Structure formats: structure tokens, C-alpha cells
């Protein structure tokens, strides 16, 4: 079975940036590259772990989407993107282009919607899909053929794999119930309100007990403790709207091209040039093999192409640290 890996571009850039924000990496020329390094590190680790046959990436376009039109306060509490992070996005796109990953993006939609659409197409084609992201928003997409690899805070190597069993283990819920769970709990990251006083445990218990939000409100008289009933009723319209807002769109006008995403067909020389420029010495040996190469052959040939490469480091740190 063909293994497809879909990358949440913006989510991984943010995760890479904030994983290294305490010790921001700069080149010998003083150029900040922590987001680029963090992103590339996460992606190369994911390739090593997942061993995909094909890789594609989705980006947000940085413009308002239909969710902003529907809910004016959507993501309104998020801090403005730091200029030093914004300036690194073009560099990340250079790395993505050199690695040969096809890019999917669509105005009016988020990268999550684009990925949801690609997942549907991949499943219809019989592919096994791994989504690599920096948050849990796409848990609703998990199926027997699709799983989520989430890069956590605290380091680019810190990840959790969510399949159906892992979701059940953590929340006692099915992937399709995660929308109802988040609608009750709310999402402070996206500024989506939940029900006052309903946290993770209560939300999970309510959804597990009643099966979902619709059944919960149909059987509101069965909710315990009783004092929770009027709170839930007062928030009903908000809960239903939140659920709809967080439901990913699966018919974005994009078309998955598996052949264009095949591994082993990237421009190694272009990647090496970028790694030399950004002084990513520690990432050189982790570049994936080209078609027909073994992993050992890839390391030798990449080192030959790279020659001497500097090592981006935290300000004030000695070379090699």
C-alpha cells in the first residue's frame, strides 16, 4: 500500500520556531534561521520514521477565510506573528521547493481544509496517510487508513502518534466525536467559546455518554449533575455554531497528484546549497535517498556534494554547540 505523508506547513513552521525560541539559531552572518531549521528538522525526522512513498504540503495563504467571515472573533486573540518568524517563511518555501514537495493551498480556506480534502482523495485511492502537524485540530480526520503525528511543545523530536486506538485511550472517544468534544470544551487557541465550566473531562464524559451533541440536547433531562442542564441549554446555539465552525471542509478545489509527490525525485544539489547557506550541518546526513540509492549511498553522495558546511548556532555559543 502506498504511504502518503501530508505536512501542515504553517503548523510545523510555528512549532519549529517556538521549539527553538529560547536559543534562536543564527548563521555566521547573523541571519536568524530557527524556524527554518526547526521545520526542516521535524520534516526530515518524520520522513525517517514514516518512510513515506510520497510527500505533499499544505499552507495557509495568510488571508481571511470563510471562518473569519462567519465568526468575526475567530482567532482574534492570537498574537500578531513576530516579524522574525514572518521573514523566515520564504526560506521555508525555498527548502520545500528544493525537496520537491508539491504545495497545495487555496484562498478562502485553511491548510487544514486542504489536507482534509486531500485525505479524502487519498483514502478513495486506497492510500495510507500520515498527517504531520503541530496541533490537534485534525483529529477528526483519523480513520483506519489515516493517522496524525503531532509535534509537541518542548522540542522538535517530541511527537505523539494518534490513531483510533490512541484517541480512545486518551479521551474515550471516536475520531468523529472530537468535533462535539471541542464544541463543548471550546478552543482558546482559535478563540472559540465552549460551555462555561465544561472542561476536558466533562466534555469527554458528556460526549461518551450521549454519543454526541445532538443526542445530548435531545436528552438534556438526563444530564447530571442537574445544575449543568441550564448552562448547557444557555450555550446550545453557541455550541452548535462552534461545531460547524471547526468542521473541516472536504471539497476544497484541489486535486491530489501522487506521482508529483513521489519521494526520491528532488534536487539534491539545490537542497545542499540551501543547507550550506543556512549552515544546517547536522541535517545533511538526514536527507532522504534519491530513487535507486540506498541510505548509505545517499549519505556518501550528499557529503560529497556538501563539502564543508557551517553550523548555525545560538548567539554567543561556540561553533559546533
For the sheet with most strands, the description reads: 6 strands, mixed
* Largest sheet: spatial strand order: 3-2-1-4-5-6
Average pLDDT = 89
Oligomer: single chain
Q: Unreliable runs, pLDDT <50, ≥5 residues? A: none
Question: CA-to-CA gap between the ends?
Answer: 41 Å
**What percentage of the residues does DSSP assign to strands (E)?**
5-15%
Coarse shape:
elongated
Structural class by secondary-structure content: alpha/beta
Number of helices: 14
DSSP strand count: 6
Q: Helix amount, in percent?
A: 40-55%
Order of helices and strands: EHHEHHHEHEEEHHHHHHHH
Radius of gyration from CA coordinates = 22 Å
Task: Throw out a few tags for this protein.
elongated, alpha/beta, single chain, 14 helices, about 325 residues
Structure characterization notes:
By secondary structure, this protein is α/β, with parallel strands linked by helices. Helix content is 42%, strand content 9%. It has 14 helices and 6 strands. It has a 6-stranded mixed sheet with strand order 3-2-1-4-5-6, with helices on both faces. A hairpin with a 7-residue loop joins strand 5 (146-151) and strand 6 (159-162). The mean pLDDT is 89.
